[in-house]
């Protein structure tokens, strides 16, 4: 996601040339511009958009509610994320660290990718403040509305909806809007060596012929560990979460840029 100043045009021009911040919400890093030829595959071994051949499924609606309840029970947590997305025949990749504290404080730090070193913080007043390497004290002057188009990750997800509760609500909304979903009746193995997980497949139609999302969900915590997005049946982006920590000790001061300058 990019950052801009909501009331200072000269600063907007300078900052938009320097600072770009991406969120959330989701797998390798590249050292320079993080763009690769489209001939390079995304990280997923499931990119053919086919259902797991040996899995048996059942309706996933009630499980999605469990995901919402589990996410809502967490007061504060942190995780590392990895993400890749296909854009204009290029693969964009990014990774970073994410922190959350109720009621809805967020901090995102980009550690690898084109925007490496950038930070975005959602504060209690609902405003987002950001900084990028080299801005120093000017960082505290950069403010964005939470729905700004510049606060979106490489896969299009807004930073302010990158917390686990918002992701679970997004799944619920897909179903409320007419999508259908099924979940494996048993746990499955997946590549990143997480604990046993269930696989949810979301389809845009009731016949379940058009794959829309695939989400691996930890069987014990009910939190997502991998998320795949599809467009016209083809994989368009993927995200993963590692080192998820339920951490009640995260200080409120972390959700301020004052200590970063």
What report would you give on this structure?
Residues 1-41 and 45-51 have low confidence and may be disordered. Helix 2 (61-72) runs antiparallel to helix 3. The chain is 13% helix and 34% strand. It has one domain: outer membrane lipoprotein receptor (LolB), chain A (Clam), CATH 2.50.20. The protein has helices at residues 9-18, 61-72, 164-176; strands at 35-37, 57-59, 76-87, 90-101, 105-112, 119-122, 128-131, 143-144, 180-184, 197-203, 211-218, 224-231, 234-246. The chain is mostly beta strands and 261 residues long. The protein starts with 8 loop residues before the first helix and ends in a 15-residue tail after the last strand. It is built from 3 helices and 13 strands.
How many strand segments?
Answer: 13
- What is the count of structural domains? 1
Distance between the termini: 21 Å
Q: Taking all residues together, what is the mean pLDDT?
A: 77
Major beta-sheet overview = 13 strands, antiparallel
CATH superfamily: Lipoprotein localisation LolA/LolB/LppX
Write the layout of secondary structure elements.
Layout: H1 9-18, E1 35-37, E2 57-59, H2 61-72, E3 76-87, E4 90-101, E5 105-112, E6 119-122, E7 128-131, E8 143-144, H3 164-176, E9 180-184, E10 197-203, E11 211-218, E12 224-231, E13 234-246
Helix pairs in contact: 2-3
Q: Descriptors for this entry?
A:
single chain; 261 residues; mainly beta; outer membrane lipoprotein receptor (LolB), chain A; 13-stranded antiparallel beta sheet; 3 helices; 13 strands; 13% helix; disordered N terminus
């Amino acid at each position: 996601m990019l950052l801009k100043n909501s009331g200072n045009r000269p600063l907007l021009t300078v900052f938009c040339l320097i600072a770009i911040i991406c969120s959330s919400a989701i797998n390798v890093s590249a050292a320079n511009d993080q763009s690769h030829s489209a001939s390079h595959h995304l990280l997923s071994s499931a990119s053919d958009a086919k259902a797991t051949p040996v899995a048996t499924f059942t309706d996933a609606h009630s499980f999605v509610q469990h995901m919402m309840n589990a996410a809502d029970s967490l007061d504060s947590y942190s995780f590392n994320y990895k993400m890749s997305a296909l854009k204009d025949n290029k693969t964009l990749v990014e990774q970073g660290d994410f922190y959350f504290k109720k009621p809805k404080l967020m901090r995102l730090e980009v550690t690898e990718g084109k925007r490496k070193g950038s930070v975005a913080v959602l504060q209690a007043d609902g405003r987002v403040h950001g900084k990028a390497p080299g801005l120093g004290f000017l960082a505290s002057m950069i403010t964005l509305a939470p729905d700004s188009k510049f606060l979106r990750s490489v896969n299009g997800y807004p930073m302010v909806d990158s917390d686990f509760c918002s992701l679970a609500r997004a799944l619920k909304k897909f179903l409320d809007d007419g999508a259908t979903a099924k979940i494996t009746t048993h746990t499955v193995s997946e590549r990143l060596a997480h604990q046993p997980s269930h696989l949810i497949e979301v389809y845009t139609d009731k016949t379940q012929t058009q794959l829309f999302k695939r989400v691996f969900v930890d069987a014990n915590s009910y939190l997502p560990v991998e998320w795949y997005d599809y467009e016209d049946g083809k994989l368009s982006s993927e995200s993963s979460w590692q080192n998820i920590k339920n951490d009640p000790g995260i200080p409120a001061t972390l959700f301020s840029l004052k200590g970063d300058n």
